[in-house]
Each structure stands twice: as structure tokens, then as C-alpha cells.
Write a structure and sequence with these properties.
35% helix; extended; disordered N terminus; two-stranded antiparallel sheet; 113 residues
């Protein structure tokens, strides 16, 4: 499966940032450190509409975090959206189909809850 990771950095301060001791500079610094450890290659790509974008290739450490990121995404989908609220869907780039939910299973392949 091909993964594209985007790290969102705020463009302006929000009312919550002072209470969290969180600034755009600290977010930029953290994003840079994460990028250096998780993304090993960056290449400029050209989209079909002519716009440019960066593509990142994950290191072994980054690939190891992928299930964690997907689990957090699924938690967010379950708890941060209203039932009828639209959100993005994770798609397998090889099949074009939505990715099935992560599940923990026993040795006997029973779903653990």
C-alpha cells in the first residue's frame, strides 16, 4: 500500500495555543524532526493538473508507525465526526477500494474487543 503523510502546521495562532504552550514555530520544529526521522526521500512531483507537490517515501521506522497512524485516524473517525458528517476515506492505491478497519485478532483469528 502506498502512503502519503501530511503534517499539518497551523498558519496562525488559535485561542488554545497559549494554554497549551504551543506555537507555530514549535510545530514547524517538531514537523521537521519527524520528517527527518520518518521520511527518507522527498521528490518534487507534478500532478495531472500541473500543480507541484512533495512526495515522501517512508523509512522502516515510518512504515512501523503506519498502523498506529491508521488506528488514530479510525479513532478520530469514530469519535470526532457526527454520524452524517462527511470526511475523507483512506483508499488502497493499488485497488482503489476503501481500506478495511484495523482489528486485533487472537491466534485463532477471533476479533479481540
Amino acid at each position: 500500500m502506498t502512503a502519503t503523510m501530511l503534517i499539518a502546521v497551523p498558519k496562525m495562532h488559535t485561542p488554545f495555543q497559549p494554554a497549551l504552550s504551543y506555537t507555530a514555530d514549535s510545530a514547524n520544529s517538531t514537523a521537521y524532526r519527524i520528517e527527518q526521522h520518518i521520511a527518507c526521500d522527498q521528490s518534487a512531483m507534478l500532478a495531472s493538473d500541473g500543480t507541484a507537490y512533495q512526495e515522501y517515501v517512508l523509512t522502516e521506522m515510518g512504515r512501523g508507525l503506519f498502523p498506529v497512524i491508521i488506528a488514530l485516524r479510525q479513532w478520530g473517525e469514530d469519535h470526532l465526526y457526527q454520524p452524517d458528517e462527511q470526511h475523507s476515506v483512506l483508499i488502497d492505491t493499488q485497488t482503489g477500494e476503501p481500506v478495511t478497519r484495523l482489528e486485533l485478532r487472537s491466534k485463532e483469528h477471533q476479533v479481540l474487543e
